[in-house]
Amino acid sequence: MVASDSLSLVFAALADPTRREILSRLAQGPSTVGEVAAPFAVSAPAISQHLKVLERAGLVTRTAHAQWRTLSMKAKSLDQASGWVEKHRRDWNLRLDALETHLETMKTTNPRK
After folding, report:
1. Could you give the angle at which helices 17-26 and 44-56 cross, rounded to 10 degrees?
2. pLDDT band at 93 (very low <50, low <70, confident <90, very high)
3. 63: which DSSP letter?
4. Are 12 and 57 in contact (CB under 8 A)?
5. Which pLDDT score is estimated for 113?
6. Which of 14, 22, 36, 57 sees the fewest Cβ atoms within 10 Å?
7. Residue 1 counted as domain residue
């Protein structure tokens, strides 16, 4: 099954270490495709595929200036994923806090003999 909702696309894009490294590099500022590809020991078509995944997820934009293709990171999609994680972290923390309170109450009202 191929996910097509925006949040699933972001998490799928972030699942690959090469794509995460590309995003880390682009977080420093816009770069050309060649500059992004240079440190990786993979083929140009492989880098192109990684960039397509990042673009489809809305994490990267590509602009053309003459013969140069410049890549920039878009934080909005990343912010959406971060917000999702934070919401669920808060929900789980509340549940764990409630469980801890319940267990403490059980311990004090029903001490073991």
Report:
1. 80
2. confident
3. E
4. yes
5. 52
6. 14
7. no
Q: Is residue 32 part of a domain?
A: yes
Q: How many CB atoms lie within 10 A of CB 100?
A: 10
Buried b (16+ CB within 10 A) or exposed e, 49-63: ebbebbeebbbbeee
Domain that holds residue 44: 6-109
Q: What is the distance, to the nearest Å, from the Cα of residue 102 to the centroid of all Cα atoms in its chain? A: 35
pLDDT digits (tens, 9 = 90+) for 45-87: 999 999 999 999 999 999 987 788 899 999 888 888 888 888 8
DSSP state of 59: S
Q: Does 16 map to a domain?
A: yes
Give the residue among 88, 63, 96, 102 at the shortest CA–CA distance from 11. 88
Domains in the chain: how many in total?
A: 1
3-state secondary structure of 31: strand
